[in-house]
Amino acid sequence: MIRILFLISLITYSVVVSQPLFYLVAMGGAQRALSAAAYIELRQRINALMTRRLPAIYLSTLIAVVAALSVSLWVGNAIGSIAAGTALGCLVADVALMLRKNVPINGVIDQWSMTDYPADWESYRARWSEGFAYRQVALLVGYAALLVGGVYH
């Protein structure tokens, strides 16, 4: 049972962590090179999709990780408990950072048009990227913990 729960946790967490991995590999640099109009259009299109899809992805990941943690604690598996607990803490930290830093900025950007935006639009992009960088660290640490727990539980 614990193997199955860790596998499910890894699969769902993989979907969540794919976002920061893609930003590390390509999207972050590409986004920084965009003009204001292109950046605004990209953010607005991503925001519309993520607002609809992200809650279900995060909820399934949360349920899977909590189940893996619960079973690990129940059977007395220390490594599994630490791994799943770390992954859970990192997932919660990611959500908190998202809600505190990225979502408010997304809301502001959603109000802009490609021709009507503030002169300091780049500062919004920089603040969004900074918040996302903290989220990247949290998610990568949580994912690494789950991988270790999946291998050594």
* SSE succession: HHHH
Low-confidence stretches: none
Tell me about the largest β-sheet.
Answer: none
Kindly, what is the distance between the CA atoms of the first and last residues, rounded to a whole number of angstroms? 12 Å
Total number of strands: 0
Q: Quickly count the domains.
A: 1
Number of discrete helical segments: 4
**Helicity, as a percent range:** over 70%
Structural class: mainly alpha
Rg (CA only): 18 Å
What is the residue-mean pLDDT, rounded to a whole number?
Answer: 95
Approximate strand percentage: under 5%
Overall 3D shape: elongated
Structure description:
With 153 residues, the chain is an all-alpha fold. The protein has one domain. It is built from 4 helices and no strands. The termini are close together. The model has no long low-confidence stretch (mean pLDDT 95).
